[in-house]
Amino acid sequence: MVRVGVSAVNGGISLVVLLIAPLGLAAVITLTLLITLSTYGCCAAGDRLLAWLDTTQRGPGRSEEPPVIGATSIGRANGQLQAERKRMRGS
Please, what's the b/e burial string for 28-48 (b: 16 or more CB within 10 A of its CB; e: otherwise)? Predict the structure, then answer.
């Protein structure tokens, strides 16, 4: 769905730019469609590349979960700290 959105926005921008230029209607429509399709293809290729890179990052002995960075890790650490405190209090 993201690919379609990006392609539509890119195609819309190119349509406006091409309508300003003194070109024939067939050229404007053809170029707009080509830009839209190429944007969709580039987004699809980028998604595949990112998926491939994500799988190659996980080597032997590495967990399936990505490392937690930022506020999420702090939240988990605070949650673990609270659980440890409860366990130590015996409640």
Answer: beebbeebbeebbeebeeeee
End-to-end CA separation in angstroms for the chain: 48
- The pLDDT-based confidence of 10 (bands split at 50, 70, 90) is confident
Segment 37-64, tens digit of pLDDT: 998 988 888 888 888 888 776 665 555 5
CA distance 19 to 17: 6
Q: What are the CA-CA distances from residue 51 to residues 7, 28, 39, 60, 68 (Å)?
A: 20, 35, 18, 18, 18
Q: Quick check: 83 pLDDT over 70? A: yes
